[in-house]
Specification:
The complex is a heterodimer of chains A (195) and B (167).
Chain A: E1 3-5, E2 10-18, H1 25-35, E3 45-48, E4 54-67, E5 70-78, H2 86-93, E6 98-104, H3 110-126, E7 136-141, H4 151-158, E8 164-167, H5 176-192
Parallel strand pairs in A: 2-5, 2-6, 6-7, 7-8
Antiparallel strand pairs in A: 1-2, 3-4, 4-5
Chain B: E1 6-8, H1 13-27, E2 31-36, E3 41-46, H2 53-73, E4 81-85, E5 89-97, E6 100-107, H3 113-141, H4 149-163
Antiparallel strand pairs in B: 2-3, 2-6, 4-5, 5-6
Helix pairs in contact in B: 1-3
Classes of the chains: A alpha/beta (195), B alpha+beta (167).
Chain lengths: 195, 167
């Protein structure tokens, strides 16, 4: 939930990385953490299992700095992608202002992507967030692998609503900031219009 | 933005901080946080320089949310109070309003759980009233265009600036 605090002159927004397990959500957030200057980001919190699978969430606050006296922050969260962690995913979506859906572009993961996208819409509704009005962008990840679908083919299967989509190789950082930049702008536009 | 976005107006906020300051003094606690259930920090009072407040708020909300789900599994709506006891520092979490939780950090050798709970209850009554007033003011702000075009453009530029040359 965005928080606009006129008393402390702060704007905080929540962006959630969603998608099937092992799709690269945590890889995205770790890359952002590595690349952003230390004074513009907070601590990276990861609630993960011993084998580095996300158990509850990853959290990274980013500081945009001051604009006209207001400090603006983005709080980035990932959800656990594994199917059986649905209760946790619902909790993380609470108050989300924008979603980055990270799809695994490998052919054999298509059904997982479709299922996860449907699950996202169901879980948004459970948090009283209208799926068709929340800012959302899609990232087609792992585009360096040999057995991937094309972005056009993925758009056809997953993106029938025509969301902005980006190809990525998150582990190398390709497309990570393009995606984050796009959702950040959509979220701020949405907030500034009072939606 | 979803319609639940919170707008905190300038007036009324200082009273909330004053209530938190009084709580800290009366209960001899170190620090008090107000956090919304999605993990956003609303206010923090007291001395917690060494703690990352954004991470603290996010984890507190996550903690509260996970415990509420546990409550539902055994037929409770939610647990209204959580308590984590450490050797020297302890944390007390309680629900203030539908979407807001209060987290109190205290040293176990400087105060007692009983005193913290007693003062917490008094404080919650005061906060509920203040947030009710704040909500009324906040409702008037919702749905309005919050910022002018030059502000939105400046934020856009800041995003480009933060992410420039980052691949």
């Amino acid at each position: 939930m965005s928080l606009i605090n006129y008393a402390s002159r702060e704007i905080n927004c929540k962006i959630v990385y969603y998608g099937p397990g092992l799709g690269g959500k945590t890889t995205n957030i770790k890359y952002v953490y590595k690349q952003i200057d230390a004074d513009a980001r907070g601590k990276l919190v990861s609630l993960a299992t011993e084998t580095d699978r996300t158990l509850f969430f990853d959290f990274l606050p980013l500081d945009l700095g001051q604009v006209q006296g207001f400090t603006t922050r983005f709080h980035l969260y990932t959800v656990p992608g594994q199917v059986h962690y649905d209760a946790s995913r619902r909790l993380i979506l609470k108050g989300a202002d924008g979603i980055i859906f990270v799809a695994d572009s490998q052919k054999e993961r298509l059904q997982d992507n479709i299922d996860s996208f449907k699950n996202l819409r169901v879980n948004l509704k459970s948090q009283s967030i209208e799926p068709d009005s929340i800012p959302l962008v899609i990232q087609y990840n792992k585009m360096d692998l040999p057995n991937v679908m094309s972005a056009e083919a993925l758009d056809e299967k997953i993106n029938d609503k025509g969301y902005l989509s980006f190809e990525s190789i998150a582990i190398e950082g390709v497309g990570v900031f393009d995606t984050l930049r796009a959702i950040s702008k959509l979220v701020l536009k949405s907030i500034s219009e009072g939606r | 933005m979803n319609k639940g976005g919170m707008v905190i107006p300038e007036e009324g906020f200082s009273e909330i901080n004053e209530v938190l300051d009084n709580l800290l003094e009366r209960s001899s606690s170190e620090c008090a946080f107000l956090v919304d259930k999605s993990g956003q920090l609303i206010s923090m009072r007291g001395d917690m320089d060494k703690v990352d407040s954004a991470a603290f708020a996010s984890l507190s909300a996550g903690n509260f949310a996970a415990t509420s789900e546990l409550a539902k599994l055994i037929g409770e709506e939610e647990f209204s109070v959580l308590f984590h006891e450490g050797d020297t520092e302890s944390i007390h979490i309680s629900i203030v309003a539908r979407n807001i939780i209060m987290v109190i950090v205290f040293r176990t050798d400087e105060t007692s759980l009983g005193l913290v709970r007693l003062e917490m209850k008094k404080t919650i009554k005061e906060l509920i009233k203040l947030f009710k007033d704040l909500n009324e003011k906040s409702k008037k702000e919702k749905g309005k265009k919050q910022f002018n075009d030059s502000f939105t453009k400046s934020l856009d530029d800041e995003i480009d600036n933060l992410f420039k040359d980052k691949g």
